[in-house]
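Input record (one chain):
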Amino acid sequence: MRQRVFGSGTKMLVLCVLLLAFTICLGHALAAEETIRILGTVPMTGEAGNLGPAYDRAMRLAVKDINEAGIKGFSKIEYKLIDTETKPSVMERKLLREIETWKPDIAGGAALETTIRVSCEGGPRYNLPMFVGGHMGTTKYVPPGEVPVSKWVNYYGYAEFFAGWAAGEFFHELGLEKVALVAGDYDWGYGCGIGMKAYWEEHGRPFEIDPVIYTALDKTDFSTEVSILKAAKPDGLFCPYMGEGWFSFPKQLRDADARPEVFLYCPTYSNIGGAIVTGEYGAENIYTLADHDPTSPGWIEFVRKWKDAYGEKAFPEAYSNNHYQLIWWIKTVFENAGTKDPDKFIETARKTSFQNVCISPMGPVCDYGSNLGAKGSIVKFVPGASPIHPDFGLHEELVKVFTTPRMDLIEVLDMMKTIEKL
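The corresponding structure, as predicted from the sequence alone:
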Protein backbone atom coordinates (compact mmCIF):
# COMPACT_ATOMS: atom_id res chain seq x y z
CA MET A 1 0.00 0.00 0.00
CA ARG A 2 2.74 2.38 0.97
CA GLN A 3 4.50 1.66 -2.32
CA ARG A 4 1.35 2.44 -4.31
CA VAL A 5 0.83 5.81 -2.56
CA PHE A 6 4.43 6.75 -3.15
CA GLY A 7 4.09 5.87 -6.80
CA SER A 8 0.99 8.00 -7.22
CA GLY A 9 2.67 10.94 -5.55
CA THR A 10 5.65 10.61 -7.86
CA LYS A 11 3.39 10.53 -10.90
CA MET A 12 1.57 13.61 -9.64
CA LEU A 13 4.86 15.44 -9.10
CA VAL A 14 6.08 14.52 -12.57
CA LEU A 15 2.78 15.68 -14.04
CA CYS A 16 3.04 19.03 -12.23
CA VAL A 17 6.62 19.49 -13.44
CA LEU A 18 5.62 18.72 -17.01
CA LEU A 19 2.65 21.07 -16.79
CA LEU A 20 4.87 23.85 -15.42
CA ALA A 21 7.45 23.28 -18.16
CA PHE A 22 4.71 23.33 -20.79
CA THR A 23 3.33 26.59 -19.37
CA ILE A 24 6.79 28.20 -19.43
CA CYS A 25 7.43 27.02 -22.97
CA LEU A 26 4.02 28.25 -24.04
CA GLY A 27 4.79 31.65 -22.49
CA HIS A 28 8.10 31.86 -24.33
CA ALA A 29 6.42 30.78 -27.55
CA LEU A 30 3.74 33.43 -27.17
CA ALA A 31 6.38 36.09 -26.37
CA ALA A 32 8.34 35.00 -29.44
CA GLU A 33 5.23 35.57 -31.53
CA GLU A 34 5.01 39.22 -30.49
CA THR A 35 5.65 41.79 -33.20
CA ILE A 36 7.55 45.05 -32.74
CA ARG A 37 5.52 47.93 -34.12
CA ILE A 38 7.44 50.91 -35.47
CA LEU A 39 5.49 54.01 -36.47
CA GLY A 40 7.19 56.31 -38.97
CA THR A 41 6.27 59.94 -38.26
CA VAL A 42 7.63 61.22 -41.55
CA PRO A 43 7.08 64.44 -43.56
CA MET A 44 6.00 63.30 -47.02
CA THR A 45 4.62 66.75 -47.86
CA GLY A 46 5.15 70.32 -46.65
CA GLU A 47 8.38 72.17 -45.91
CA ALA A 48 10.39 68.97 -45.41
CA GLY A 49 8.50 66.92 -48.00
CA ASN A 50 11.66 66.68 -50.10
CA LEU A 51 13.35 64.71 -47.27
CA GLY A 52 10.67 62.37 -45.94
CA PRO A 53 10.29 59.89 -48.82
CA ALA A 54 13.93 58.80 -48.46
CA TYR A 55 13.43 58.32 -44.69
CA ASP A 56 10.43 56.12 -45.40
CA ARG A 57 12.22 54.04 -48.03
CA ALA A 58 15.21 53.54 -45.71
CA MET A 59 13.07 52.34 -42.81
CA ARG A 60 11.06 50.01 -45.06
CA LEU A 61 14.30 48.53 -46.41
CA ALA A 62 15.66 47.98 -42.90
CA VAL A 63 12.43 46.32 -41.76
CA LYS A 64 12.51 44.01 -44.79
CA ASP A 65 16.13 43.03 -44.18
CA ILE A 66 15.58 42.52 -40.45
CA ASN A 67 12.49 40.37 -40.92
CA GLU A 68 14.38 38.20 -43.40
CA ALA A 69 17.27 37.81 -40.95
CA GLY A 70 15.00 37.18 -37.94
CA ILE A 71 14.72 38.79 -34.52
CA LYS A 72 15.69 37.03 -31.31
CA GLY A 73 12.62 36.78 -29.05
CA PHE A 74 10.15 38.38 -31.46
CA SER A 75 8.38 37.27 -34.61
CA LYS A 76 8.90 40.31 -36.84
CA ILE A 77 8.72 44.09 -37.17
CA GLU A 78 5.62 45.81 -38.46
CA TYR A 79 6.11 49.28 -39.92
CA LYS A 80 3.46 51.92 -40.57
CA LEU A 81 3.80 55.46 -41.93
CA ILE A 82 1.95 58.67 -41.14
CA ASP A 83 2.60 61.82 -43.17
CA THR A 84 3.23 64.60 -40.66
CA GLU A 85 2.94 67.17 -43.47
CA THR A 86 5.73 69.07 -41.62
CA LYS A 87 3.00 70.43 -39.31
CA PRO A 88 3.19 69.89 -35.53
CA SER A 89 -0.59 69.94 -35.10
CA VAL A 90 -1.06 67.33 -37.83
CA MET A 91 1.69 65.12 -36.42
CA GLU A 92 0.23 65.35 -32.91
CA ARG A 93 -3.27 64.45 -34.07
CA LYS A 94 -2.14 61.53 -36.23
CA LEU A 95 0.29 60.25 -33.59
CA LEU A 96 -2.42 60.18 -30.93
CA ARG A 97 -4.79 58.34 -33.27
CA GLU A 98 -2.18 55.64 -33.95
CA ILE A 99 -1.31 55.31 -30.26
CA GLU A 100 -4.98 54.68 -29.49
CA THR A 101 -5.65 52.30 -32.38
CA TRP A 102 -2.47 50.70 -33.75
CA LYS A 103 -0.48 50.90 -30.48
CA PRO A 104 3.13 51.32 -31.70
CA ASP A 105 6.09 50.28 -29.55
CA ILE A 106 8.28 53.12 -30.82
CA ALA A 107 7.77 56.06 -33.19
CA GLY A 108 9.93 58.57 -35.04
CA GLY A 109 11.33 60.07 -38.18
CA ALA A 110 10.56 63.77 -37.70
CA ALA A 111 12.66 66.09 -39.85
CA LEU A 112 12.43 69.70 -38.70
CA GLU A 113 12.60 70.92 -35.12
CA THR A 114 8.98 72.07 -35.38
CA THR A 115 7.85 68.45 -35.48
CA ILE A 116 10.63 67.07 -33.25
CA ARG A 117 8.92 69.06 -30.49
CA VAL A 118 5.93 66.72 -30.76
CA SER A 119 8.20 63.71 -30.22
CA CYS A 120 9.86 65.29 -27.18
CA GLU A 121 6.49 66.11 -25.61
CA GLY A 122 4.72 62.94 -26.72
CA GLY A 123 7.32 60.46 -25.45
CA PRO A 124 6.84 61.09 -21.73
CA ARG A 125 3.14 61.87 -22.15
CA TYR A 126 2.35 58.54 -23.82
CA ASN A 127 5.19 56.48 -22.31
CA LEU A 128 6.40 55.83 -25.84
CA PRO A 129 10.06 55.69 -26.96
CA MET A 130 10.79 58.04 -29.89
CA PHE A 131 13.65 58.38 -32.37
CA VAL A 132 15.11 60.91 -34.79
CA GLY A 133 17.00 59.39 -37.70
CA GLY A 134 19.24 62.35 -38.39
CA HIS A 135 20.98 64.96 -36.28
CA MET A 136 19.20 66.94 -33.60
CA GLY A 137 18.65 70.66 -33.82
CA THR A 138 18.97 71.95 -30.28
CA THR A 139 18.26 75.68 -30.47
CA LYS A 140 14.60 75.21 -29.51
CA TYR A 141 15.74 73.61 -26.24
CA VAL A 142 17.56 76.71 -25.11
CA PRO A 143 15.36 78.87 -22.84
CA PRO A 144 12.94 80.35 -23.68
CA GLY A 145 12.68 77.49 -26.20
CA GLU A 146 9.55 75.41 -26.32
CA VAL A 147 11.01 71.89 -26.56
CA PRO A 148 11.52 69.94 -23.32
CA VAL A 149 14.62 67.81 -22.89
CA SER A 150 13.42 64.22 -22.88
CA LYS A 151 15.00 60.86 -22.16
CA TRP A 152 12.34 59.36 -24.46
CA VAL A 153 13.85 60.66 -27.70
CA ASN A 154 16.91 58.90 -29.12
CA TYR A 155 18.71 60.34 -32.11
CA TYR A 156 21.50 59.33 -34.43
CA GLY A 157 24.52 61.55 -34.88
CA TYR A 158 25.23 64.86 -33.21
CA ALA A 159 23.70 68.22 -32.38
CA GLU A 160 23.71 70.77 -35.20
CA PHE A 161 26.03 72.79 -32.94
CA PHE A 162 28.78 70.30 -33.81
CA ALA A 163 27.97 70.53 -37.53
CA GLY A 164 28.70 74.24 -37.31
CA TRP A 165 31.81 73.59 -35.21
CA ALA A 166 33.11 71.12 -37.84
CA ALA A 167 32.43 73.69 -40.58
CA GLY A 168 34.43 76.35 -38.73
CA GLU A 169 37.30 73.93 -38.17
CA PHE A 170 37.30 72.96 -41.85
CA PHE A 171 37.38 76.57 -43.08
CA HIS A 172 40.16 77.33 -40.59
CA GLU A 173 42.24 74.36 -41.78
CA LEU A 174 41.87 75.55 -45.38
CA GLY A 175 43.11 79.01 -44.39
CA LEU A 176 40.06 80.87 -45.71
CA GLU A 177 39.85 84.58 -44.97
CA LYS A 178 36.14 85.31 -45.40
CA VAL A 179 33.23 82.90 -44.83
CA ALA A 180 29.49 83.37 -45.39
CA LEU A 181 26.53 81.60 -43.77
CA VAL A 182 23.29 81.07 -45.69
CA ALA A 183 20.78 78.98 -43.75
CA GLY A 184 17.10 78.29 -43.32
CA ASP A 185 15.32 80.74 -41.00
CA TYR A 186 14.59 78.23 -38.24
CA ASP A 187 16.26 76.36 -35.41
CA TRP A 188 18.58 74.09 -37.39
CA GLY A 189 20.02 77.04 -39.30
CA TYR A 190 20.49 79.08 -36.11
CA GLY A 191 22.18 76.19 -34.29
CA CYS A 192 24.61 75.50 -37.13
CA GLY A 193 25.56 79.18 -37.14
CA ILE A 194 26.03 79.18 -33.35
CA GLY A 195 28.33 76.16 -33.62
CA MET A 196 30.47 77.82 -36.28
CA LYS A 197 30.57 81.02 -34.22
CA ALA A 198 31.63 79.04 -31.12
CA TYR A 199 34.58 77.51 -33.00
CA TRP A 200 35.43 80.91 -34.45
CA GLU A 201 35.53 82.62 -31.04
CA GLU A 202 37.38 79.73 -29.38
CA HIS A 203 40.14 79.86 -32.00
CA GLY A 204 40.84 83.59 -32.20
CA ARG A 205 38.37 84.55 -34.93
CA PRO A 206 40.57 83.16 -37.75
CA PHE A 207 38.33 84.41 -40.57
CA GLU A 208 35.75 87.09 -41.23
CA ILE A 209 32.10 85.94 -41.19
CA ASP A 210 30.13 87.91 -43.77
CA PRO A 211 27.41 87.90 -44.97
CA VAL A 212 24.96 86.02 -42.73
CA ILE A 213 21.62 85.31 -44.42
CA TYR A 214 18.57 83.36 -43.20
CA THR A 215 15.98 82.37 -45.81
CA ALA A 216 12.31 81.35 -45.56
CA LEU A 217 11.82 77.58 -45.84
CA ASP A 218 9.33 77.87 -48.69
CA LYS A 219 11.65 79.97 -50.84
CA THR A 220 12.95 78.67 -54.18
CA ASP A 221 14.26 81.78 -55.96
CA PHE A 222 17.49 82.98 -54.32
CA SER A 223 18.39 85.77 -56.76
CA THR A 224 18.65 88.33 -53.93
CA GLU A 225 20.92 86.08 -51.88
CA VAL A 226 23.00 85.34 -54.97
CA SER A 227 23.49 89.07 -55.61
CA ILE A 228 24.58 89.68 -52.01
CA LEU A 229 27.14 86.85 -52.15
CA LYS A 230 28.45 87.98 -55.52
CA ALA A 231 29.09 91.44 -54.11
CA ALA A 232 30.60 90.19 -50.82
CA LYS A 233 32.94 87.64 -52.50
CA PRO A 234 33.51 85.24 -49.56
CA ASP A 235 36.10 82.46 -49.94
CA GLY A 236 33.82 79.93 -48.29
CA LEU A 237 30.11 79.34 -47.71
CA PHE A 238 28.47 77.17 -45.06
CA CYS A 239 24.96 76.30 -46.15
CA PRO A 240 22.69 74.44 -43.67
CA TYR A 241 19.24 73.29 -44.82
CA MET A 242 17.17 76.06 -46.42
CA GLY A 243 13.90 74.29 -47.23
CA GLU A 244 12.21 73.59 -50.55
CA GLY A 245 14.72 75.28 -52.87
CA TRP A 246 17.85 74.19 -51.02
CA PHE A 247 19.10 71.70 -53.61
CA SER A 248 18.97 74.31 -56.39
CA PHE A 249 20.95 76.98 -54.54
CA PRO A 250 24.48 76.03 -55.70
CA LYS A 251 23.34 75.90 -59.32
CA GLN A 252 21.78 79.36 -59.01
CA LEU A 253 25.10 80.59 -57.63
CA ARG A 254 27.07 78.99 -60.47
CA ASP A 255 24.73 80.38 -63.11
CA ALA A 256 25.49 83.86 -61.76
CA ASP A 257 29.23 83.18 -61.38
CA ALA A 258 28.82 83.83 -57.66
CA ARG A 259 29.71 80.52 -56.03
CA PRO A 260 32.58 80.77 -53.52
CA GLU A 261 35.67 78.61 -53.89
CA VAL A 262 34.54 76.39 -51.01
CA PHE A 263 30.82 75.54 -50.76
CA LEU A 264 30.04 73.35 -47.75
CA TYR A 265 26.59 71.85 -47.27
CA CYS A 266 25.38 70.52 -43.90
CA PRO A 267 24.60 66.79 -43.35
CA THR A 268 21.10 67.11 -44.83
CA TYR A 269 22.79 66.91 -48.26
CA SER A 270 24.96 64.03 -47.11
CA ASN A 271 25.80 62.01 -50.25
CA ILE A 272 25.50 61.49 -54.00
CA GLY A 273 21.72 61.18 -53.56
CA GLY A 274 21.58 64.88 -52.77
CA ALA A 275 24.06 65.69 -55.53
CA ILE A 276 21.87 63.87 -58.06
CA VAL A 277 18.96 66.13 -57.13
CA THR A 278 21.19 69.17 -57.60
CA GLY A 279 22.64 67.81 -60.86
CA GLU A 280 26.23 67.36 -61.99
CA TYR A 281 26.61 70.98 -63.03
CA GLY A 282 25.51 72.31 -59.65
CA ALA A 283 27.13 69.69 -57.41
CA GLU A 284 30.63 69.49 -58.89
CA ASN A 285 33.30 70.32 -56.28
CA ILE A 286 30.75 70.89 -53.52
CA TYR A 287 31.74 69.66 -50.06
CA THR A 288 29.22 68.28 -47.58
CA LEU A 289 29.22 67.08 -44.01
CA ALA A 290 28.29 63.41 -44.23
CA ASP A 291 27.62 60.28 -42.17
CA HIS A 292 29.51 57.68 -44.13
CA ASP A 293 32.80 56.72 -45.74
CA PRO A 294 31.98 56.36 -49.45
CA THR A 295 34.74 53.75 -49.87
CA SER A 296 33.67 51.50 -46.98
CA PRO A 297 32.26 47.99 -47.65
CA GLY A 298 29.23 48.77 -45.48
CA TRP A 299 28.30 51.81 -47.56
CA ILE A 300 28.82 50.00 -50.85
CA GLU A 301 26.64 47.10 -49.67
CA PHE A 302 23.93 49.55 -48.56
CA VAL A 303 23.87 51.23 -51.98
CA ARG A 304 23.58 47.80 -53.60
CA LYS A 305 20.64 46.92 -51.35
CA TRP A 306 19.00 50.24 -52.17
CA LYS A 307 19.31 49.66 -55.90
CA ASP A 308 18.00 46.13 -55.60
CA ALA A 309 14.95 47.49 -53.77
CA TYR A 310 14.29 50.72 -55.68
CA GLY A 311 15.94 50.37 -59.10
CA GLU A 312 19.40 50.63 -60.63
CA LYS A 313 19.15 54.39 -61.13
CA ALA A 314 18.02 55.02 -57.54
CA PHE A 315 20.48 56.22 -54.91
CA PRO A 316 20.15 56.74 -51.13
CA GLU A 317 19.31 60.34 -50.28
CA ALA A 318 20.01 62.47 -47.20
CA TYR A 319 19.81 60.67 -43.83
CA SER A 320 18.63 57.45 -45.47
CA ASN A 321 21.62 55.51 -44.14
CA ASN A 322 20.99 57.00 -40.67
CA HIS A 323 17.40 55.76 -40.68
CA TYR A 324 18.43 52.35 -42.00
CA GLN A 325 21.06 51.88 -39.30
CA LEU A 326 18.81 53.31 -36.60
CA ILE A 327 16.11 50.70 -37.27
CA TRP A 328 18.73 47.97 -36.84
CA TRP A 329 19.76 49.62 -33.56
CA ILE A 330 16.13 49.63 -32.40
CA LYS A 331 15.90 45.92 -33.22
CA THR A 332 19.08 45.28 -31.22
CA VAL A 333 17.79 47.25 -28.22
CA PHE A 334 14.56 45.23 -28.17
CA GLU A 335 16.56 41.98 -28.41
CA ASN A 336 18.83 43.01 -25.53
CA ALA A 337 15.87 44.20 -23.45
CA GLY A 338 13.99 40.95 -24.08
CA THR A 339 10.70 42.80 -23.69
CA LYS A 340 8.62 45.55 -25.25
CA ASP A 341 8.32 47.34 -21.91
CA PRO A 342 9.07 51.01 -22.76
CA ASP A 343 11.01 51.77 -19.57
CA LYS A 344 13.20 48.72 -20.14
CA PHE A 345 13.78 49.86 -23.72
CA ILE A 346 14.99 53.28 -22.56
CA GLU A 347 17.24 51.70 -19.93
CA THR A 348 18.73 49.26 -22.46
CA ALA A 349 19.27 51.98 -25.07
CA ARG A 350 21.78 53.59 -22.71
CA LYS A 351 23.99 50.51 -23.01
CA THR A 352 23.46 49.45 -26.63
CA SER A 353 25.59 50.24 -29.67
CA PHE A 354 25.12 49.18 -33.29
CA GLN A 355 26.81 50.03 -36.58
CA ASN A 356 26.53 48.89 -40.16
CA VAL A 357 26.33 51.55 -42.92
CA CYS A 358 27.21 54.79 -41.10
CA ILE A 359 30.65 56.04 -40.18
CA SER A 360 29.52 56.35 -36.56
CA PRO A 361 27.81 53.77 -34.34
CA MET A 362 24.29 54.49 -33.14
CA GLY A 363 24.47 54.46 -29.37
CA PRO A 364 25.06 54.07 -26.64
CA VAL A 365 23.11 57.23 -25.95
CA CYS A 366 23.30 59.59 -23.00
CA ASP A 367 20.48 60.09 -20.47
CA TYR A 368 18.88 62.60 -22.86
CA GLY A 369 19.10 60.47 -26.01
CA SER A 370 22.08 62.09 -27.73
CA ASN A 371 24.66 59.88 -29.45
CA LEU A 372 27.86 60.42 -27.44
CA GLY A 373 31.10 61.06 -29.30
CA ALA A 374 29.57 60.57 -32.75
CA LYS A 375 31.83 60.60 -35.79
CA GLY A 376 31.20 62.48 -39.00
CA SER A 377 32.95 63.00 -42.30
CA ILE A 378 33.38 65.58 -45.02
CA VAL A 379 33.10 64.42 -48.61
CA LYS A 380 33.59 66.24 -51.92
CA PHE A 381 31.83 65.59 -55.24
CA VAL A 382 34.43 65.35 -57.98
CA PRO A 383 34.23 64.54 -61.72
CA GLY A 384 34.15 60.89 -62.74
CA ALA A 385 31.38 58.36 -62.29
CA SER A 386 31.55 55.94 -59.37
CA PRO A 387 31.45 52.17 -59.99
CA ILE A 388 28.55 51.98 -57.53
CA HIS A 389 26.54 54.54 -59.53
CA PRO A 390 27.82 54.79 -63.11
CA ASP A 391 24.77 56.77 -64.29
CA PHE A 392 26.00 59.95 -62.55
CA GLY A 393 29.12 61.82 -63.65
CA LEU A 394 30.42 62.64 -60.15
CA HIS A 395 31.62 60.52 -57.28
CA GLU A 396 32.31 61.12 -53.59
CA GLU A 397 35.81 61.66 -52.30
CA LEU A 398 36.44 61.32 -48.55
CA VAL A 399 38.15 64.50 -47.34
CA LYS A 400 38.31 64.01 -43.56
CA VAL A 401 36.78 62.28 -40.55
CA PHE A 402 36.01 64.12 -37.32
CA THR A 403 34.78 63.06 -33.89
CA THR A 404 32.48 65.24 -31.83
CA PRO A 405 33.31 65.86 -28.15
CA ARG A 406 31.68 63.40 -25.74
CA MET A 407 29.14 65.91 -24.45
CA ASP A 408 25.56 65.09 -23.54
CA LEU A 409 22.63 67.26 -24.58
CA ILE A 410 22.60 69.31 -21.37
CA GLU A 411 26.31 70.13 -21.72
CA VAL A 412 25.76 71.22 -25.33
CA LEU A 413 22.86 73.43 -24.28
CA ASP A 414 24.87 74.99 -21.46
CA MET A 415 27.49 76.00 -24.02
CA MET A 416 24.92 77.27 -26.53
CA LYS A 417 23.22 79.49 -23.94
CA THR A 418 26.29 81.70 -23.79
CA ILE A 419 26.47 82.34 -27.55
CA GLU A 420 24.10 84.53 -29.57
CA LYS A 421 23.15 83.40 -33.05
CA LEU A 422 25.04 84.83 -36.00
